[in-house]
């Protein structure tokens, strides 16, 4: 008996080659933890994101990378979303963070059927696999399509003074927090497609709240990580239609060298702070 080498570099290289030679197939590569993509960064940089620009070569290769702050420590919390967003240019890839079963299904279905083949990177929080609120009905799975932005149907648009924009699993932390009930003038919306950024959809969402005074971008990741630094200018462009709102405010972890805390207690404390600050409650 012997141990075979664990090499994400080799595995992802194989899957990329397969996806290029079999363009009619939808090839998915799922990492056990999102940060395992670190071992395959060469394939990402040299082939997946730049192959179309260098050689006119692209594919439908889809990366499923668990990403979400669930108290697992700095090694198993981040799929380094910021790296992929930094590499997104010239319509070379697609980056998404679907938060419901129907959204995930329609995203993959679109990836398989879209006439324009591009690699897709999906942030896939492990916690959503067993979260009841993330489930979908048969009708939602059978009908409809992938929606780049999901609004908040739980509040009346005229009553909204603060709009929280977020993406991924942290949405459920905010929407399900005990303080949510007291924040009746807050709407919580999800940006499900991060690149290409859906500026028009976010602009339409902002315009739907006539009394809006504050716009917040909330994320779990530190300020120098996650989506914020790559999409801030897009958010502010979309938010410009809100006459009374000032510039988009950031809520999340402060700048850090390491993605997250190493102790569950500190993690919970920081998550609670982020949620309360996003909702604007003490």
Taking Cα atoms only, what radius of gyration do you get, to the nearest Å?
19 Å
Structural class: alpha/beta
Helix and strand succession? HEHHEHEHEHEEHEEHEHEH
Question: Roughly what is the average pLDDT, rounded to an integer?
Answer: 95
CATH architecture of the largest domain: 3-Layer(aba) Sandwich
CATH class of the largest domain: Alpha Beta
Query: Considering DSSP H and I runs of 4 or more, what fraction of the residues is helical?
Result: 25-40%
> What is the distance, rounded to the nearest whole angstrom, between the alpha carbons of the first and last residues?
59 Å
Under CATH, the topology of the largest domain is which? Rossmann fold
Report the sheet with the most strands, covering strand number, pairing sense and barrel closure.
5 strands, mixed
Biggest sheet, spatial arrangement of strands: 1-2-4-3-8
Supply the number of structural domains: 2
Low-confidence stretches: none
Number of distinct beta strands = 10
User: What fraction of the residues are assigned to beta strands by DSSP?
Assistant: 15-25%
| Overall body shape | globular
Task: Please work out how many helical segments DSSP would assign.
Answer: 10
Protein model, in words:
The chain is of the alpha/beta class. The chain folds into 2 domains: 8-142, 3-Layer(aba) Sandwich (Rossmann fold); 149-279, 3-Layer(aba) Sandwich (Rossmann fold), CATH 3.40.50.11610. The protein has 10 helices and 10 strands. Strands 1-2-4-3-8 form a 5-stranded mixed beta sheet, covered by helices on one side. The chain has a 5-stranded mixed beta sheet with strand order 5-7-6-9-10, sandwiched between helices. Helix 5 links the parallel strand 3 (94-96) and strand 4. Helix 1 runs parallel beside helix 2 (41-48). The termini are far apart.
